[in-house]
Amino acid sequence: MLSTMQDVPLTVTRILQHGMSIHGTSQITTWTGEAEPQRRTFAEVGRRATQLANALRDELGIDGDQRVATLMWNNAEHVEAYFAIPSMGAVLHTLNLRLPAEQLVWIVNHAADRAVIVNGSLLPLLAPLLPHLPTVEHVVVAGPGDRSLLTGTDARVHEYEDLIAGRPTTYDWPELDERSAAAMCYTSGTTGDPKGVVYSHRSIYLHSMQVNMAESMGLTDRDTSLVVVPQFHVNAWGLPHATFMTGINMLMPDRFLQPAPLAEMIERERPSHAAAVPTIWQGLLAEVTANPRDLSSMKQVTIGGAACPPSLMEAYDKLGVRLCHAWGMTETSPLGTMAHPPAGLSAEEEWPYRVTQGRFPAGVEARLVGPGGERLPWDGESAGELEVRGAWIAGAYYGGAGGEELRPADKFSEDGWLKTGDVGVISPDGYLTLTDRAKDVIKSGGEWISSVELENALMAHPEVAEAAVVAVPDDKWGERPLATVVLREGAAADYAVLRAFLAERIAKWQLPERWALVPAVPKTSVGKFDKKVIRRQYADGELDVTEL
Ligand code: AMP
Description:
The chain is built from 16 helices and 27 strands. The chain is an alpha/beta fold. Among the domains are: 39-176, Rossmann fold, CATH 3.40.50; 212-327, Rossmann fold, CATH 3.40.50; 440-547, 2-Layer Sandwich (GMP Synthetase, Chain A, domain 3). The strands form 5 sheets. It has an 8-stranded mixed beta sheet with strand order 2-1-11-10-12-13-14-15, with helices on both faces. The protein has a 7-stranded mixed beta sheet with strand order 7-6-5-3-4-8-9, with helices on both faces. 48% of the residues are buried. The model has no long low-confidence stretch (mean pLDDT 96).
């Protein structure tokens, strides 16, 4: 028997219509670097998104599920593109502006993007690539920047504001299949070609509802969220969509992502929430330690994308800012877990829960798989690869125009679960603790050493600013840890001191004997430690390594 319920497709269009009407007075504030930021209500953003959809169809001829890319910072225009493109039935393709040029070219060609909306300040990045992007027929430029860089390009160049000016503020939005593609995002591709994850209208809708649950970020129209995580990094963790559901105001940093302007934004605009990877919070901490600022408005901060060192959480606790740890991936939209402790605990009892990656929401099923493919128990001890399944979890990668979907065996199980490549344990009450990426774990004499545990312990030392640990080949043990350390300014800790500090927390056989001081830990395009680069630097003899 079928239900008697209506079957209304869950689409991005409905999120847009809801946000611009019910929450029409909520605001997007975009930092401009000038005396006043740009302020736009959801009603205005919705109207402008509608005008953009008209322009894309009538002026650029965007049709069907053609891809329209964005190469943009976090700002109101980018949110307009977020809603206009999927709502008209086309596919939003956010481009990671920190990728190397050749990867960007590969990705745009693979997705066969027909148009690119670009911030003027990013034209120096896009312009030299255009001759290698045969599918790109249109470039739409928004915001300040040198347009002359586009002289001589074969693509038609449009000015964003001119393009939308005077266009109709209504659109006969198509009734879309909720399973159809709404947006796509390529993984940063540390090995092999980047892989395209294609989000559906339905997955975005359901994921946005989850983001808004108290169990997750749980914000309302009384909140303002500082969205530091880029809109090209898994849809800014779903925030632009989630905010249009509940009217959460957004504070967008545009290109002003350095610690000093972020601190100023927080003090002046008083957001109650923020979302970013740990390296951003490390940078901001150093900034506000040197130049104190009022961060008291921030009641909750979502931190994820890489393991949050407990020492960082403690430091922010002292500033009255509570970091809440979350885990996810491009393939998981990204919300996979969030570390809210169970009810009824004291602050001291909450701590061991807060430093986990968190627990799974109802929409995400999880299992741990051992090296031989066996299912492992949730006993807080058995470590295995995490596999997940759910309505906002990828089941395949995009195969390119006319290509078959890709389901590589190292990424998807035979029964369709996503193999995350993350290794960890799950407690009996469903809290996930990741010990490593499968490819970063250090395999020493048949035992595993967690690089993350060593890093967290090192970063708890007051003279250590950052530390990254990687596996390096070792004749006797197969692999051993190499610790690369960034000291705080003026600090003078030596390796023996750091090793002794580690010995208080970590089993002796796991302590690194190889050490190198580095000026900075190399970072990936989304601000995570780039261990691939460290391994290469070691192999090429570029590091000044001391053996204890
Ligand atoms: P990306 O798709 O670029 O966001 O990368 C996803 C990967 O980032 C995951 O598979 C994890 O390895 C890592 N990651 C994300 N969040 C966390 C977290 N809270 N703790 C540890 N690793 C994380």
